[in-house]
Amino acid sequence: MAVCFGNSRLPVWRLKGRQMVKVAVMASALMAGQVAALAPEHEARRLMLAIEEAVTEESWGEAGEYLNRLQLLEAEKPVDYHYYRGKVMLQSSHFNEAQSALEAYVTKAGTEGEHYQDALKLLTNIERERKAKAQAPKTSSDTKIAVIEPAGDSRLESLRKLYLAGSDREALVLHLNSLLGTAAWREDQGVVRLDKRPDIEYRVNVSGNAIAVQEIKRNSAGGATRTTAQVQVFGVNPQVEWGCEPAVATCWVYDPRDGSRLFQLAPNRTQVEEVAQTLGKLIRNLQVPSGS
Q1: Residue 138 has pLDDT above 50, yes or no
Q2: Taking burial as the number of CB atoms within 10 A of a residue's CB, which of 4, 20, 28, 108 is the most buried?
């Protein structure tokens, strides 16, 4: 075998030092180029095979790397992608992302899906794990945490003026409801019609030292189902977590008590972050008697 350098050709066994390094780099680049040259649909299948093999061998880091590459690929994702993403996220204790991925798999694959039964079992495991770790210290994750500004900052003063509110608490409730209305979830994300109510929306109110959260779900026939839950703020961390899942075109704000889903919102990261931040401010306000 010979390798070309300029106009000369040298046998591989004559190459030394930097020449050998150069050959190795050229060969590596050539191989990478061959893989990248695959059409997106074939590259997606190749990556899926690599993911399946890595998961079977319990090489979770490698599986996560392939999953990330597939996620960025401009090609339709195989249904099984969501199942394997759920398994890998669960191994890393990223319960919210794991739940979103597994639910997406169950919805898309249905009862005929190869991993349908296992996906349901994994969802149950997530529920159990979340309950078991509800009171445990938070571990690092990819979920975003809303940064809370000081309670007496100029932002709250601006909100009081904006809503003509008599207190920070009243201003925060009004602002949070305004944000929730703007970020309400719609099944059709393409065109937002102001004359059509969203499919899922929320209203909050303060009752004593608790936040009353009303969820309104509308069906295709125009009917609505309302449910109300109380979020007790005593001992709750006011730094509220949030996250988005592109696979289901949804963002969530998570319940600061146990990490379960509290608000299902439209996939707008800026809006959702402000919802989480405002909710955190309201929680902290309720925790301080002088904040009323």
Answers
A1: no
A2: 108
